[in-house]
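Hi support team,

I submitted a single chain yesterday and got back a structure, but I'm not sure I'm reading the token output correctly. Could someone confirm the output below corresponds to the sequence I sent? I've pasted both exactly as they appear in my results page.

Thanks,
R.
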Amino acid sequence: MDDTEQDGSKVSGTVYNDKNNNCQQDANEDGIPNLKVTVQPGNRQVFTDADGQYEFNLAPGTYTITQLNNAAWKKSCNTNSHTINVLTIGQEYTGNDFADTAACQSPDLYVELASTALRVGFENLYAVTFGNNGTEGAINTVLKVNFGQYIIPLSASLPWDSKSGTEYTWNIGAIEIGQAFTIYVEDSVFDRSNDW
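Hi R., thanks for writing in. Yes, this is the structure output for that exact sequence:
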């Protein structure tokens, strides 16, 4: 199946942390990653990249672009949306920015675990993904994962710093706003067949 995008014009902008509430992006104000921006009509959506930038490729027509806030960010200016009139193909409509401020100044750390099918006698793989969805960077971050008594970690793409029983610890350090990392852990499963 081919998925081709129609000819159009590039419509772009930045969602940024407007720390001083002056409704313009200053040199010390970073873009905000992973925020949803939508365009109507068409109900299309994208997420801002690591620098807070987004873009759509739109055919000629009139569109409304809206940035949707999450619990961590709120709009600092009265720019709820941008109306764009795309006249011809091949043009660029830039500067459709959204200024946000932190609803709460704190990191918001998360951890997600995923694994292949865990089978006795085979090496298996765990993916431990962690990151910061907050409005402030995290410092001195420590990741602890308890694999339980039947999963035995063999190695990891980022070696663990310590182990206590079934708990493995990684001293991560700083995690900036919007950063995410994945550690891959090879493991085996303890054979309980002799317990019966």
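A quick pointer for reading it: Residues 49 and 184 are 24 Å apart (CA to CA). Let us know if anything else looks off.

Best,
Support desk
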